[in-house]
User: What shape does this take?
Amino acid sequence: LIYRLKQAHAGIPLAAFHVSGEYAMLKAACQNGWLDEKSMAFETLLGIKRAGADFIITYYAKEVARWL
Assistant: This one.
């Protein structure tokens, strides 16, 4: 969806919201030791960026800023 919107409206900044349900799912999986949180957060946000988002609104903002 992000890719198609970006292609259809080239030149207009596109923001994406990393939904709370996915954030909660990643947090739970990481707390159970199933996933590495830092790796999964970066992979998820990078996927959104690669799709074409110019801005990403995410609950991970403070953590990612600290990791960087």
